[in-house]
């Protein structure tokens, strides 16, 4: 019985050493690989896509002017800079009308008052008029965080509003990758 336990422990220890070695080798290879993924047809994707860190607002009452902040972090190993995002309102959030010419972007997290980033263009997407496309004048580099602010003339009634965010790498052949859903919670003014 003791021999069986000894052999099991010995084999398990060997497999852990091999696994640790494999993880070490893979980790080193992953750390060196920071190039974007190029598909056979020439389209480009992020090696590690950006992350939607949060969606937030301090303008929480219906009827008030609204500013919705979407904070996006581009990881060091993204492999490509972030050139554009598309914000897609879900369900009843489609009723929100954004004042597109008042959209802004800043470096860093929301409310930190980081340096302003220029937007090359802001507009709707012809295939889906509810989507908002924002293109950065200079792509957001790996390792940087950006906050995009969309403004409304007024907030709709109270409720939870979801917005899907998709990021596009720099270049002509960038493939959009879904970054996550942002959630904005608004309250009726009578509450």
Tell me about this structure.
16% of the residues lie in helices and 42% in strands. With 191 residues, it is of the alpha+beta class. It has a five-stranded antiparallel β-sheet with strand order 3-4-10-6-7, with no helix packed on it. A five-stranded antiparallel β-sheet has the order 8-9-5-11-12, with no helix packed on it. It has a two-stranded antiparallel ribbon with strand order 1-2. β11 and β12 (177-186) form a beta hairpin.
The parts where pLDDT drops under 50 for at least 5 residues are: 1-33
In round numbers, the mean pLDDT is: 82
Order of helix and strand elements from N to C terminus: HEEEEEEEEEEEE
The total count of helices amounts to: 1
Key terms:
single chain; 191 residues; alpha+beta; five-stranded antiparallel beta sheet; 1 helix; 12 strands; disordered N terminus
């Amino acid at each position: 019985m003791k021999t069986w336990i000894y052999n099991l422990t010995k084999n398990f220890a060997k497999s852990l050493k091999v696994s640790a070695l494999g993880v070490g080798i893979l980790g080193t290879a992953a750390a060196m690989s920071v190039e974007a993924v190029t598909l056979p047809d020439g389209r480009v994707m992020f090696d590690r896509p950006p992350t939607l860190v949060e969606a937030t607002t301090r303008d929480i009452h219906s009827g008030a002017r609204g500013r919705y902040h979407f904070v996006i972090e581009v990881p060091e190993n993204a492999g490509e800079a972030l050139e554009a995002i598309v914000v897609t309102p879900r369900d009843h959030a489609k009723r929100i009308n954004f004042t597109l010419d008042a959209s802004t972007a800043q470096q860093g997290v929301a409310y930190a008052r980081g340096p302003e980033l220029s937007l090359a263009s802001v507009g709707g997407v012809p295939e889906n008029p509810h989507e908002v496309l924002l293109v950065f004048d200079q792509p957001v580099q790996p390792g940087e965080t950006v906050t995009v602010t969309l403004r409304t003339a007024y907030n709709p009634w109270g409720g939870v509003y979801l917005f899907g965010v998709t990021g596009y790498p720099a270049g002509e052949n960038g493939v959009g990758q879904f970054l996550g859903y942002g959630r904005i919670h608004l309250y009726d003014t009578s509450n």
